[in-house]
Structures
1.
Amino acid sequence: MASASESAYFTKARLAGRPVVRELPKFDLDAYIANYRGKTRFDRLLLIGTTSPLLAPEALRHAVSEAKQGRDVGRYDAVTAAMREIMPQDPNAIPDTVWKENVNKLVKAESDRLETELKGYKNNLIKESIRMGYDDLGQHHHRTGNLTESVKAYGKMRDCCTTPSHVVIMNLRLISAAIDQGNWLAVQTNVQKLRSPGQQFAEAQRLTAKLSAAAGLALLASGNYKEAAQEFIEADPRMVQARLDDPADEEAFNEVMTPNDIAVYGGLCALASMDRTDLQKKVLENSRFRAYLELEPHIRRAITFFVSSKYSSCLFILDSYRSDYLLDIHLQPHLGELYFQIRSKAIQQYFIPFSCATFAALAIAFDTDENAVEKELTGMIKRGNLDARINLFDRVLVAKMIDPRRKVHEHALQTAKEYERTAHLRILRMEMINAGLEVAEKGKAAGVGPMFENAGREHRYGISSASNF
């Protein structure tokens, strides 16, 4: 009964266009999810549970446990609603109304206490106490899922910040809340405030890895893969040494992402947006990013194969990890486009030395069939990624032949025509000024500048400059 219900849910999801991962990923769920904390831990479990039929039971049970350890009733409602659709016979699918009522009472009592304390701090007019009161209230709203009120509380800390470290803490809080909201413009804005040349925060220098990761994530979410790659590959390697199991470690950023995620996101964005020269110099030879690549050696191998023109090996590695990436909360919406860009670049690079190539040769080179090659080439040509034509009769991809001499002649003729037109317009203007046909502004003589003004006056009165002598 449960399996039939699961099958129906995921079939419906696939028909609706949502991704469904039927293969087991390479990671172990318990080991994978142990690297995260906070809201992203729950969000990743819920995504896996609603995307992978094989991991759904385990992931959703973990998600229920994670939700009940916190005070965000909205998370609990979301996971129980998913369980009722996917595995309705599971006991956890029935909402625990007693727990929800108790948590709501605790949240309200805590909110009232913090607001009362904040009013007292305001009456005392002590800025540091007011700032800490807003900070505590913002963190409380953040933990309980009220992100809008959390951002408001963090924003009100600004007037009470008396030291640079206070400004840094406030902006980090706003970045974290904006990431959970999916407000990527706010993420970039707050990152730039800490990077502003006019305000050098010594405390922010220790957080450059977090700022690069947050900025890269915002650019990735916006579809700006090249700039996202630049942010990720320039991330400070100190985050690699962070203890993910220690919430007090300032270098850890696992409430958003781990160093492994930086390696994967940066590597995929670089493959999708950089040419082979840049991949070699900016990625493989980058000492800062090398520390992250060592955590995900398959990404380094894929980039090395691409730089070495071994495109089929590169694409094989990426395809073997497709299931893992489809279960990543930040990669899933962009994976199709990233893979398309990487394959498009590989085909472009492969085709450069040839005037034509058969579908059969392309299918062998990229480990696929001819029909898939035809569909992919058609899509690339329509999007302007490939300047070539398809001969369906002979099943051949033909490069557009360009005559360099003809292009030079056409450019020279166009330049001559533009020069002739410009010269004609200038002569025409000079004649109009000399004839006194120019319409001048009120209170200003005809002509442009004193030279033309004098020339017009000399022409009207028959005065020659030589008559002054």
2.
Amino acid sequence: MPHVRPDEYPQVNSSYVLEYVEVIHRHHKRTPYAANTFPVETYPWYCDDEALFYYGAPLPTHGANHSANTYWSVYTSSANPLSPRGFNGTCQFPQITRGGLDDSWQHGNDLYGVYHDLLGFLPDKYDPNLVSFRVTNNVITSQVAGMVTSGMFGGEAHQEFPLLIQPASIDSLEPGYTCPAAKNNFSAYGVGSSDAAWTSHLKAAANLYANLDTISGIPPTDSGFHLSFDHYFDNLSARLCHAKPLPCNASNPALCVTRAMADTVFRLGQYEYSYLYRDAGARTLEYSAGSYGIWVAELAQHLRRAMQVTDDDSVRTGDGTSTSGIRYRHKVAHDGSISHVLSILQAKQMVWPGMGSEVVFELYQRKVDPQYYIRVLWGGQVLRSSNPTLGVLDMLPVEILFAYLDGLVGPRADKIPSMCNL
């Protein structure tokens, strides 16, 4: 997916100074989730060209008792009479694939090419006092972060980067915290609801579903595959992202999913995300504000802290750069995470965020006055909001964004407990 890169980056004029950057993006391409695979897949999927390292190590890591670099190697036993659901082979479902790892490294390298090489904003070497990385409790985000950090600051061998992570039950990034009111709101109009505006496209796609079910062997009663097109979308798009053939029936190899059928699934998936996060009206904003309000409150807090550090002359150097305080935060998340951000910002055109989709928040200060401004990039270009207060998010006075976010979720998300009926 398009993201911030040196060739296309829209630079601001020299009257503004970049003070803070926060990046959130979806992980890169992966194998499908096991729940999204078919009962019998007709070809295997191998991941022998990569390794997933899972181990603990004492800190400091240069002590006497150090850890070996151990990684998982998937296999099946000849003594086990059972077959795994879905694909045979040597992959986890999900895991970031070799292509996804390479894309992750390139993503990090592109960001460094802009914020270090082009703008001189990032330090030459990784500095935990200036730069932080954060992941969710889903391991695929850590797989991506390992490559992103290397693409940005990996010039030295055996570097170590802490990845911030919140407790799973209150994680704001995935998100993982509970918001019953938001869930009830979504259940009234979204996946699994009887809302006619939602169910109409499912009914209209009955023939497509019947053909897909016949080919895949998925029972028509499987709710995971039939309450939305999410599962079929994931299964088919993962194949095409990795240049694999579309599936055929296990008993009749001549009966296959056509490219036209797959494209229809993708089109309907795009429709669903647009409906769920924007087109269903005010309910979508209420849902996202409750489900992702803590994260946007954290964003606002980070921006305010960056402004405080910038305004403190005691932590300024002669060239105007800050000597303390995090100035770049990088979060690796999921499609739902990005969708909530776009929903809250009321993006003018909503899509299903693809692999590597990215939203960037840039905080600037004008040289001639103390005012701060915010610019938001989506897919590497300025985000346009249908909200008249936000409009084109290009050098918007940051206080307007603060008022908007505080109005939704409160400073430090103090409205969330009551909004969520907690």
3.
Amino acid sequence: MSSKRPSPLAISTASVQRLLKEETTYRTELASQEQRLRELEQGGGEDDDGNREWTVRQEKQAIEETKAVFEPLREKLSAAAENLEQSLVSGIVVIFQKGTWVADGKFRDQGDQGNLRKGKWRGRRH
């Protein structure tokens, strides 16, 4: 039983999608943390445990840690996008190596040349 391996293009695309989803998750988490901090700071009285100052410090630290994630994540996303671009370019090169483009912009496999001359070729896009 053989399993079909994903193409480099599929892997690159999934990587970019995963990193974008991760960034969205961190942005949502940051907004949630900032909202909790605002609520803690606006709450004039003591919280249930009587340790509001400690909770505020902890929330501020969590916000800073979340913000610190964005720069490395942007670098990873940039590298993944570059890899995706290379995969796209490589895929186009492979297409050009396997066949040629005819004047109307349709791709023609080298094996279709006989049918093209006989008027039977309909044009396939890859």
